[in-house]
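pls design
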């Protein structure tokens, strides 16, 4: 029994049907962690990209150093740091939130490079024209440069969304009951691993296919010349 649900081990088909509701509960946790982690990564990555684009090295170089540190250290190390070290300084977060933040922080470094490539694809003449019209750098970034960059980076961001989904099982080390951890628990208690793990593989395949289809649809709908701001 898990989550108050009993499973039927009389046959493989009955066993698979009986554990499906439990796996779907774990899948919902996986989706929540991936979405929250991607949201953190998208926001923090944009901030890092903006800081790295600043001409003042006192601001841009720390952003570059932080990006390299996040990219070059394992996700598991960052997760352990947030979960075990921060409480020593009075910062205690739930396991799920800690895991989602670890995913977001790690992938913010990758997304910052995606943002940077998109921002650099916008012609500098538009920035120069905005400066000539006495438009502030922040307004130029938010109203002119960023809306043109986003449609160009949607496919790359979609790839990282799928990658975050596939990295969510790492959160099981801090006792987050995502779908793979649930399947492992079921296998430990029933000594039948092949069915729950196979079902998890199928659920992940379905989830990533849906996410990829959504990203492709969004990429086709967004105008390549930029998002109109009205």
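designed seq:
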């Amino acid at each position: 029994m898990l989550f108050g649900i009993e499973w039927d081990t009389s046959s493989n088909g009955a066993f698979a049907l009986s554990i499906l509701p439990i796996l779907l509960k774990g899948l919902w946790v996986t989706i929540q962690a991936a979405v929250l982690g991607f949201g953190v990564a998208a926001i923090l990555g944009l901030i890092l990209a903006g800081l790295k684009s600043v001409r003042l090295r006192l601001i841009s170089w720390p952003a570059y150093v932080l990006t390299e540190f996040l990219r070059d250290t394992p996700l598991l190390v960052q997760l352990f740091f947030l979960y075990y070290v921060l409480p020593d300084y009075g910062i205690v977060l739930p396991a799920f939130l800690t895991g989602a933040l670890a995913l977001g922080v790690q992938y913010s470094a990758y997304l910052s490079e995606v943002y940077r490539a998109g921002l650099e694809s916008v012609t500098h003449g538009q920035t120069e024209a905005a400066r000539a019209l006495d438009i502030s750098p922040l307004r130029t970034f938010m109203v002119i440069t960023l809306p043109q960059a986003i449609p160009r980076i949607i496919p790359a961001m979609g790839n990282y969304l799928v990658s975050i989904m596939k990295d969510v099982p790492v959160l099981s080390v801090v006792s987050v009951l995502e779908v793979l951890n649930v399947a492992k628990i079921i296998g430990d208690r029933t000594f039948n691993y092949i069915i729950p793990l196979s079902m998890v593989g199928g659920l992940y395949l379905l989830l990533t296919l849906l996410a990829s289809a959504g990203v492709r649809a969004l990429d086709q709908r967004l105008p390549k010349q930029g998002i109109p701001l009205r």
